[in-house]
């Protein structure tokens, strides 16, 4: 049996999936641009940000599970 520490591949896999989600990222950046001058503090881009990470998670899930032993 190997005594090596396991390496978490998740960050690497998520990074490789981010280009796949460029549309969601563009939507988030557009929202940030729209609200940058908001003085009320009530505007936010949480929905767009979560949409981006949902896309990344969907892309990464099957790749992550393939690396499990």
Automatic annotation (TrEMBL):
Membrane topology: Peripheral membrane protein
This protein's UniProt keywords: Disulfide bond, Electron transport, Membrane, Mitochondrion, Mitochondrion inner membrane, Oxidoreductase, Respiratory chain, Transport
Gene Ontology annotations of biological process type: mitochondrial electron transport, ubiquinol to cytochrome c
GO CC aspect terms: mitochondrial inner membrane
Subcellular location: Mitochondrion inner membrane
Electron transport among keywords: yes
Family the UniProt entry places it in: Belongs to the UQCRH/QCR6 family.
Name of the protein: Cytochrome b-c1 complex subunit 6
């Amino acid at each position: 049996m190997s005594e090596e520490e396991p390496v978490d591949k998740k960050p690497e896999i998520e990074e490789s999936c981010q280009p796949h989600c460029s549309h969601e990222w563009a939507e988030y950046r557009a929202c940030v641009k729209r609200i940058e001058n908001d003085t009320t503090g009530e505007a936010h881009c949480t929905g767009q940000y979560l949409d981006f990470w949902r896309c990344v998670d969907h892309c990464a899930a099957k790749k992550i599970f393939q690396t499990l032993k």
